[in-house]
């Protein structure tokens, strides 16, 4: 069972000493002689994730020490404290540490994130150890962030047979109900006429495409989140190899991330007018699938030559961004598992992003460092605009040559945001390929903690 909340402050607790390699000897010398001898005999070296249980006079566990490694380890790994949770026995624990501020918040959040379990298809043993919220952290905020992360992970981890456009709509409706938001859905003929690119990408699937729209809040700046909701991507007629199709349940990771961020915003009652747009489709293969060489007309009126049906994410986002741009937004943020080029550039951990406003980028990067949610700014490099202009149409959805794939995709999207000066695009991976403390293998939130931290300052302008 997922356990991503703090223990009651009334719970009886035992101390959990967070010990670094640098501070090990001073900590050990501060113990009584019996405890010193026990720790010495246990060969506890304060390695990251290492735990020693300290007994009382009658043998019961009265305290524990958890290793957080050396400075080099802590610089390389996020959430090292999260690795302690699974190694502690049942009960409520309380940090004993010199950590404070952002470092203490990271330790507490890592503990919560280590409580995540995906149990839709197989039971997973819950963590037995709980933590009383440390003094000096905003417990409600950390629980809110952990819940948003859990929502994102659950949506991505669910396979496509149980997470198609219908189910993604249901998830948005459940979130809206929980927070008093409103949802409207455009499908069928209205989608074909108003959002032709979304309709075209999804029309070959028996699972009908749609545009999901959620609105919340009546005062404050207008923030629009747009998330790519390709629930499964075969590649279309440009069919992916089988090995490349294996993770395509995560191709709705952009939608999952914006829904996780939306939960944080609404649960925290942020003073914004929030709009969430999710083009939900399945890119399937059938007789009516769109073809390489087709030229399509977007909602904005721009024509797009299709040179690869596997570059479908930017198509569905284009129509959704056009709608967002029509709505007098103060800030538009799009998130998508859009290009393999982004992963080649920065790997799976870092969220590359693009921003039209330098102050928004500065605020995001300061927040990312604060909450340990790494991002990296990429350029809207205007000289590459010619690469997305095929001549036969306004735009090319898959420029030849293979250069600057993430940048050309971002430039493509920017063509559909012309009325809103502040636009950010995130080309996320949405997946942890291996297990790390607080970050199990599987679906992952990326940049949403940083965005949630940064948004208040960004929206003061």
Q: Could you explain the architecture of this structure?
A:
- The chain is an alpha/beta fold and 461 residues long.
- It folds into 2 domains: 13-137, Leucine Aminopeptidase, subunit E, domain 1; 143-458, Zn peptidases (Aminopeptidase), CATH 3.40.630.
- Helix content is 34%, strand content 20%.
- It has 15 helices and 19 strands.
- The protein has helices spanning 24-29, 33-42, 71-76, 101-113, 139-157, 165-179, 188-194, 196-202, 242-245, 253-267, 313-326, 340-346, 358-371, 405-414, 448-458; strands spanning 13-19, 51-55, 61-67, 91-96, 129-131, 182-187, 210-216, 222-227, 229-233, 273-283, 295-297, 303-305, 331-336, 351-355, 375-377, 395-396, 423-427, 431-432, 442-443.
- The strands form 4 sheets. Strands 6, 7, 8, 9, 10, 13, 14, 15 and 17 form a 9-stranded mixed beta sheet that branches. The protein has a 5-stranded mixed beta sheet with strand order 2-3-1-4-5, with helices on both faces.
- Strand 2 and strand 3 form a beta hairpin.
- The longest helix has 19 residues, at 139-157.
- It is elongated.
- It starts with 12 loop residues before the first strand and ends with a helix.
- Pfam families: Peptidase_M17, Peptidase_M17_N_1.
- It is an enzyme of class 3 (hydrolase).
- Keywords: Aminopeptidase, Hydrolase, Manganese, Protease.
- InterPro entries: Leucine_aapep/pepB, Macro_dom-like, Peptidase_M17_C, Peptidase_M17_N_1.
- This is Putative cytosol aminopeptidase.
């Amino acid at each position: 069972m997922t356990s991503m909340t703090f223990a009651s402050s009334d719970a009886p607790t035992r101390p959990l000493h967070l010990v670094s390699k640098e501070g090990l000897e001073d900590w050990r010398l501060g113990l009584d002689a019996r405890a010193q001898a026990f720790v010495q005999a246990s060969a506890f070296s304060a390695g990251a994730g290492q735990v020693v249980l300290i007994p009382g006079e009658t043998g019961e566990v009265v305290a524990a020490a958890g290793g957080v490694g050396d400075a080099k380890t802590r610089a390389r790994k996020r959430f090292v404290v999260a690795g302690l949770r699974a190694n502690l026995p049942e009960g409520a624990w309380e940090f004993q540490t010199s950590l404070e501020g952002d470092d203490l918040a990271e330790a507490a959040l890592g503990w919560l994130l280590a409580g995540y379990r995906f149990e839709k298809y197989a039971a997973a043993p819950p963590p037995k150890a709980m933590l009383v919220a440390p003094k000096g952290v905003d417990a409600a905020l950390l629980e809110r962030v952990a819940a948003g992360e859990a929502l994102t992970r659950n949506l991505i981890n669910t396979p496509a047979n149980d997470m198609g456009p219908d189910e993604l709509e249901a998830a948005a409706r459940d979130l809206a109900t929980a927070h008093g938001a409103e949802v409207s859905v455009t499908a069928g003929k209205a989608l074909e006429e108003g959002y032709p690119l979304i309709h075209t990408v999804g029309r070959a699937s028996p699972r009908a495409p749609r545009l999901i729209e959620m609105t919340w809040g009546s005062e404050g700046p207008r923030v629009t989140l747009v998330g790519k909701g390709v629930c499964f991507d075969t590649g279309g007629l440009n069919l992916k190899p089988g090995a490349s199709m294996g993770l395509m349940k995560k191709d709705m990771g952009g939608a999952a991330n914006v829904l996780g961020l939306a939960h944080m915003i609404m649960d925290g009652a942020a003073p914004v007018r929030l709009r969430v747009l999710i083009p939900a489709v399945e890119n399937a293969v059938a007789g009516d699938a769109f073809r390489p060489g087709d030229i399509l007309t977007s909602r904005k009126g721009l024509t797009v030559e299709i040179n690869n049906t596997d570059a479908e994410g930017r198509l569905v986002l284009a129509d959704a961004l056009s709608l967002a741009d029509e709505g007098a937004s103060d800030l538009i943020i799009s998130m998508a598992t859009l290009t393999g080029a982004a992963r080649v550039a920065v790997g799976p951990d870092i969220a590359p992003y693009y921003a039209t406003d330098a102050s928004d980028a500065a605020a995001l990067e300061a927040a990312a460092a604060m909450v340990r949610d790494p991002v990296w700014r990429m350029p809207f490099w205007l000289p590459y605009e010619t690469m997305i202009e095929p001549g036969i149409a306004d735009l090319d959805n898959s420029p030849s040559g293979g250069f600057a794939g993430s940048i050309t995709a971002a430039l493509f999207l920017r063509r559909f945001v012309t009325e809103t000066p502040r636009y950010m695009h995130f080309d996320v991976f949405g997946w942890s390929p291996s297990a790390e403390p607080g970050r199990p293998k599987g679906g992952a939130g990326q940049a949403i903690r940083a965005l949630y931290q940064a948004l208040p300052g960004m929206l003061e302008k």
